[in-house]
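I have been asked to look over a protein record a colleague put together. Thanks in advance; the entry in question is below.
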Amino acid sequence: MENVEVKIDAINNDIASFRLDMIDVYDNMEQMNMSMCSRKSPTSQTMPTEVTVKQSSQTQEVEKRLLSAWQREKKYTRNQYQELVNRIEILEKGQKDLETLSSGQSESIENVLGDLKFLKETVVSNTVNRDEFINIKNQTINVQKKITTMADAQQHLVHNVKGFGEKIQQATQDIKNMVEKVNKIDEIEKKVQTIDTVMNKLKLTFIEIDKLSDEVSCLYPWNNYRESCYYFSNLKLSWKNAMTDCQSKGGSLVEYKNKAEVQDIAKMALSISSENVYWVGATDIEKEGNWKWSKSGSTVNFRYWMDGNPDNYYNEDCMTTQVEDKGIWNDAACHSEKKYICQKAKYVSEMKSHA
C-alpha cells in the first residue's frame, strides 16, 4: 500500500512539472512572436535609397527563413503539446484507477495483514510445541504411506474381486447343478428305500424258504445233495460231448469243494449204478499240469489223486472219479468215452443266489 501511494505522488509531481514546462514554452513563443513583429516596423532613421533597398531585401529573406523555421517549430511544438496532453489524460485516468484500486484493496490488505499477524502469533505460540509438530508431521507422512499402500491394495483387491465375481458366478451355476443332482439323489434314495423295503420282505421270504429247503427234493432223475442236484448219466461219451450233453440239461460237469464232498457223491453214485468211472469237470488241456474246473475256470485247490497220477499217459488231460475207491481221481484221454456226473443248483438255491 505504501508503494502505491509513493507512485501516485510521483505521478502528481511529474504532471505539475510538465505543466510548468508548458507555461515556459508558451512564454518563449510569445516573446519570439513579439520580436518578429518589432523587426517589421519602419525605423525613423533615413538611409540612402540603394542601401535601404539592399538591406530591405536581405532583411526580408532572413525574416522569411525565420518565419518558416518558427512555423515549423510551432507545428512541432503543438504536436508535442497534444501528445503530452494525451499522456496527461492517460496518467490522470491511471491515477484515478490507482486511487480506486487502492481504496478497494485497502480493506483486503488490512485483512491480509490481520491474517499474517494471526499466523505469526500462531507460529510463535506453536514454537513451543515444535517437537510435537514434527512428531505429528512424521505420523502424517506414515499415514500417507499407509494410505498409498492401502490404495494399491484396494486396486489389487478390486482386480481380485472382479476375478472372484466370475468364480462366484461359476460356483453359483455349479451349486444349481449340484442342487439338481441332490434332488435326483433324493428321488433315487426314495426309490432305494422302496427297494430296500422290498428286499427286506424278500429276505424274510427266503428265510422261510430256507426252512423248507431241506424238504425240497430234486426232480427225477436228479438226486438231491445239499444245495445241488446231481445226474449220473447212462450214456458213455467223450469228455467234450459229456460236457455238452450236461449243459443241455441245464447243468455242468461236477466241481468239488473238498474231499468230503467227493466221497459223499461217490457213495450216491454207487447207490444208483454199478458203474465205477465217471467224467468230472476238471482238465489241464490248456496247460499241462495246471488243472482247472471247466465251468468256474478256477484252479483245483486240493489234491485227491490216485497214486502216481496224474501221469499224462497218452495225453491224458481230463479228470475222472472212481466211485468204488471213495471217488479218487485219475487222468484219462479226453476222447475216451465214459459216463459223467452232471451238477446243477436247486431251484430254491438259484432264487437265493439271485437275491
